[in-house]
Design goal:
Elements lengths: L12 H16 L3 H25 L7 H23 L10 H5 L5 H29 L4 H18 L3 H22 L5 H17 L5 H17 L1 H4 L11 H32 L11
């Protein structure tokens, strides 16, 4: 076995594009159960990051901007776990569009991957909701964590459809840029640093992530239903915390995430670095 020489320099953008293409093919062709379980893990990881952000921003006495910054910083845990531990995240997998337009995979492969991964992410996020509730950690800080969870969910379900869409666009542009940057990295520490700033930015700036919202909103709905005294503490009652409000956020945010990840990152870098290169016809469309 020939040992590869150790290198510390980052991959260049053109090399990163080639790596994204290769990984996109691997992701698209993954066996069903492996893909599903890795997606469940990713949903759980993002849920843990979301709970960490809820705790960090609960009644912390900080000015708004610093509180948002802290919440974004700790939320980075979710994507760090996805990338370093290994999992399949719907929003990051929007980058497999590069392999599709390079004709290395077909549209059926893209739809299959996104469908299975979104299902698994949903299951993982909802499992985390249940575990967090049953663990009782929402009572921390004299129930400030639970109250904050309801407040976050209520705020998200009060955003208009159009605002949800464009916040989803901007969010996944940053998430996919974080994933893109990781393809430049050779070491774990490099990947962690590459993730922190884009993810902290999207949370701090109030953008919307579909998989995170699969934790945030159901958690708020569950607490407001089973612990109504927490919702009663809010200045503005959580009127929109129902299935209609949930879907009114999730649908436009998911669509926005797809646009942000595919058009603003994947297709842009494909056009710059991979357009015109030799392609492997697949026969699938």
């Amino acid at each position: 076995m020939v040992q590869k020489p150790f290198q510390t320099d980052a991959y260049l953008p053109r090399e990163m594009a080639q790596r994204v293409n290769e990984v996109g093919v691997t992701k698209a062709k993954m066996e069903f159960w492996s893909m599903l379980y890795l997606a469940i893990l990713a949903g759980s990881f993002i849920g843990l990051g979301a709970h960490f952000a809820t705790l960090a921003s609960a009644n912390n006495g900080m000015p708004f901007s610093l509180s948002q910054l802290l919440a974004g910083l700790v939320f980075s845990l979710g994507l760090i776990l996805v990338i370093v531990a290994g999992a399949e995240l719907f929003t990051g997998n929007n980058l497999i569009v590069m392999a599709y337009v390079s004709r290395k995979i077909g549209l059926r492969d893209v739809v299959r991957n996104w469908g299975i991964v979104l299902l698994g992410n949903t299951v993982g996020a909802l499992i985390t909701v249940g575990l967090i509730y049953l663990s009782g950690v929402w009572v921390l800080g004299s129930e400030a964590v639970g109250t904050r969870a309801i407040q976050i969910a209520a705020a998200k379900t009060d955003i208009s459809w159009l605002e949800c869409f464009f916040r989803g666009v901007m969010c996944n542009a940053l998430v996919c840029l974080a994933v893109w940057l990781c393809f430049s990295c050779r070491a774990t520490v490099d990947k962690i640093i590459a993730i922190i700033f884009p993810i902290t930015a999207f949370v701090s700036m109030g953008f919307e992530h579909s998989i995170a919202n699969l934790y945030f909103i159901p958690m708020g709905m569950l607490l407001s239903k089973l612990q109504p005294e927490l919702a009663a503490r809010l200045a503005n009652p959580a009127q929109s915390l129902d299935i209609s409000g949930f879907l009114g956020n999730l649908i436009p945010v998911t669509l926005g995430n797809i646009v942000g990840g595919t058009l603003m990152v994947g297709l842009v870098y494909w056009f710059i670095y991979l357009r015109g290169l030799s392609r492997i016809p697949n026969g699938d469309s």
